[in-house]
Automatic annotation (TrEMBL):
<feature type="domain" description="EAL">
    <location>
        <begin position="24"/>
        <end position="278"/>
    </location>
</feature>
<protein>
    <submittedName>
        <fullName>Cyclic di-GMP phosphodiesterase Gmr</fullName>
    </submittedName>
</protein>
Amino acid sequence: KAKETGKNRIVFYNTPMNAEIIERAIIEKHLRNALDNKEFELHYQPQLDIKSGKISGFEALLRWNNPELGPVSPLKFIGIAEATHMIVPIGEWVLRQSCKFLRDIEKMGFQGLSIAVNISMIQLLNEDFAHMVIDIIEEAGLNPRQVELEITESILMESYEVIAGKLKLLRARGVKIALDDFGKGYSSLNYLKSLPITTLKIDKSFIDTISNGNKDKSLTDLIVKIGRSMDLCVVAEGVETQEQMDYLVKHKCHRIQGYLFSRPVQQSEIVRKLNEQYYNQNTFQEELAL
Ligand code: C2E
Ligand code: MG
Ligand code: MG
Ligand code: MG
């Protein structure tokens, strides 16, 4: 905000609003070259399947490290990437990289795992989104059932028909669709009924309510019940404590994702975890055989 004072001087007020606009402009400038300069990296957060006690798959989470800005949180740059439509090429890179990651893991002998990728509304509205997804999955040589697209409810407010059509096409090819951050924002149970959703991800804010003597936690149980009654896979995200974990196991949530089990980590760390799990399972089976 600029204001003229009596002597024709322009005074700039460093309002928070101003600072935010400047920061966004700086981020946008650096974001333009981030893909070409190979500044992006993916981290993968394992999901634990409660029934088998094993890793069932991963969520890919984008990381940006800019030489000048340092690491920038996706909470800061995804919105800017969406507003400028840079999310279209960035999102395509994320999907291709994620599929390649899973294929690499398979080649090491870890079969039947899945990869979840966050998808922005801007990508979904793009004309050839569905074909792009199918091409990338085929190119990687994956089964479409191993790939899950995570969409958020806010996405669904706009252009509902167009989006529903694309999701149905992808679902018909086997691709899974997760409703991310479920319960936060404009939840509509209608979406669950009319979209080809396969997975429900309970928002972290509900998981946070699970603590001793908190009455609100029954809402989490209710969401699990809704999901299960609709034959959906129910995933809890942001699980940080053993108490939350115990509650979710008791109330029959299918999968757990959160710092308690693992933070999002690099591919090499995922390979280490899978090897460790494989080794433990074999020693366990050998003990049984004795
Ligand atoms: P999200 O899809 O809901 O992802 C979960 C977020 O929770 C991630 O934050 C993850 O690191 C964090 N998280 C996981 N477990 C825990 C926990 O136990 N405690 C806490 N406090 N946090 C936990 P992150 O990586 O900062 O990503 C934030 C959001 O940015 C994501 O939320 C997603 O909406 C968006 N995002 C990230 N990567 C991509 C991407 O490749 N494409 C798009 N379109 N959006 C992305
Ligand atoms: Mg997600
Ligand atoms: Mg998300
Ligand atoms: Mg989420």
